[in-house]
Design a protein that fits this description.
Blueprint: H1 5-20, H2 34-65, H3 67-73, H4 79-104, H5 106-110, H6 112-133, H7 159-178, H8 192-281, H9 287-315, H10 319-322, H11 325-335, E1 341-346, H12 357-378, E2 382-390, E3 398-405, H13 420-432, E4 436-441, E5 447-454, H14 459-464
Parallel strand pairs: 1-2
Antiparallel strand pairs: 2-3, 3-5, 4-5
Helix pairs in contact: 1-8, 2-4, 2-8, 4-6, 6-7, 7-8, 8-9, 8-13, 11-12, 12-13
């Protein structure tokens, strides 16, 4: 349609800007839903209603407040005074009627676009009739016809309704202007208003469509932002829950180690001390028996020392700082060989890495937790751990690691399976170092954990981020 060409040109320009990336309305991965479109439709109705109320109040006061200027400038009862008087009366009446309709009828509040068309029609009809009655096409008041279409800018409506509403005002003005005075159609200037009005209507429709489109983008982007914030908040909550679960699991494991291993050793040591006290009180006890008790006590003390060292090593392996990640992993995997056959392979460059304390600890925990899950849940006979360093040109070095077992496997998408919290911990630790982790598994086909960690940034930079 000819009258909608400015709006369509704007749409073309907007689509071109989106394609070039100069401007983009990002509504998130989900796009725009029907509920959000309905929410914007309600928002547009509320804006239109507020525009009508504000315009009615302001126009009513301005029209009534400037009436004394007519008394000063024109003689009371003159044609000009009478024309302006009835023109002002039509505007004030329209403003009062609009406010009363909004206050009294819910339908008008729910359909402010139609109310706007009706409320604009009365002053437009009066203006057309009065301008035609005073001077016709040669009157300076005739130029007021070109301001009529701009009333529809106040309506926050789609393009089709906007064109119809604008054309309605133009047609009403033309009918009120020409019907009482058909001789104006033969006037030499009769062809000018349609030509000028076409441009004014097209411009008005274009401006109104731009306003509508920008308001829609702004509203939907805020909706999308709220949706993204809600999703990220939920993700953070889940991550916090996972971290708390991991923390509780670690505390439970340490408590069990202390109770099951260290507690039993201390109980045994206490029993040996009681036995030694009884033996020492008997003068007939042979020295060899005392030596046996002392030897058993010494053995228990050594076991207590080893147990404490293991617990402390689980809290933080000091060998990470003294020997490095590669040697620490070799020792840990070697100690696991009494549970299953574990192999460890690392590139020569891995041993030369200068990792931060945080990077080394997180990598160690990822591999330790993976192997713990294998021992507890996989029922595997073999597990293979591989570390390699890869770096493409002008890229940050990436440390790749793989833990592969031949166990029973599991459904990766099953969140309630045993060890699920441990898997969540692996993901969270990888994310902590801006890394990535992927788990592949299926029942009866073993499990493969693959990950990569950027090592070109130190821990201070990561904490800063």
């Amino acid at each position: 349609m000819l009258l909608g060409w400015p709006a369509r040109i704007f749409d073309r320009i907007y689509e071109g800007l989106k394609e070039t990336g100069a401007y983009s309305a990002d509504f998130g991965e989900e796009g725009v839903s029907n509920l959000e479109e309905e929410a914007f439709a309600r928002h547009a109705r509320n804006l239109t209603l507020r525009n009508l109320q504000f315009t009615a109040v302001v126009m009513g006061f301005l029209t009534a407040g400037t009436f004394p200027t007519d008394v000063i400038l024109f003689e009371i009862g003159s044609p000009v005074f009478t024309t302006l008087f009835w023109w002002r009366a039509s505007i004030i009446s329209s403003c009062v009627i609009t406010l009363l309709l909004i206050r009294s009828f819910p339908w008008c509040r729910n359909h402010p676009d139609w109310l706007g068309v009706v409320s604009f029609s009365l002053p437009v009809l009066a203006s057309g009739y009065l301008v035609g009655s005073y001077g016709g096409l040669e009157s300076p008041l005739t130029y007021g016809i070109y301001t009529t279409p701009f009333l529809t800018v106040l309506l926050i409506t789609p393009l089709g309704f906007r064109i119809a509403a604008t054309m309605n005002l133009v047609i009403l003005f033309g009918l009120a202007f020409f019907l009482p005075h058909p001789d104006y159609l033969n006037h030499p200037l009769a062809g000018a208003p349609p030509v000028w009005m076409t441009g004014v209507v097209a411009t008005t429709v274009g401006i109104g469509h731009v306003v509508y489109h920008l308001l829609r983008i702004n509203f939907l982007q805020r909706f999308a932002l709220n949706r993204i914030v809600a999703r990220q908040t939920e993700e953070l909550r889940q991550r916090a829950d996972a971290l708390l679960s991991i923390q509780e699991e670690n505390r439970k494991r340490i408590g069990q180690d202390i109770h099951d291993e260290l507690g039993q050793l201390l109980t045994g040591l206490r029993m040996e001390m009681d036995r030694l006290r009884l033996v020492s009180q008997n003068p007939n006890t042979a020295p060899a028996k005392q030596d046996q008790i002392l030897q058993r006590s010494e053995s228990l003390l050594n076991a207590v020392h080893d147990s404490l060292e293991g617990i402390l090593n689980n809290l933080f392996p000091l060998s990470l700082e003294t020997e490095g990640l590669n040697q620490t992993l070799q020792r840990m995997i070697h100690e696991m060989n009494h549970h299953l056959k574990a192999d460890y392979h690392a590139d020569s460059q891995v041993n030369l890495l200068s990792l931060s304390r945080e990077q080394a600890l997180v990598l160690y925990r990822i591999i330790q937790e993976s192997l713990t899950n294998v021992i507890k849940h996989a029922q595997a006979a073999n597990v293979d751990v591989t570390l390699s360093l890869e770096q493409e040109e002008n890229e940050i070095p990436m440390l790749h690691f793989t833990i592969r077992d031949d166990g029973q496997g599991f459904e990766v998408e099953q969140p309630s399976r045993p060890g699920a919290f441990g898997l969540a911990g692996l993901y969270e630790r990888a994310k902590w170092l801006d890394g990535h982790l992927h788990i592949t598994s299926a029942p009866g086909k073993g499990t493969t954990i693959q990950g990569r960690i950027p090592i070109g940034r130190n821990s201070e930079e990561q904490n800063h981020d």
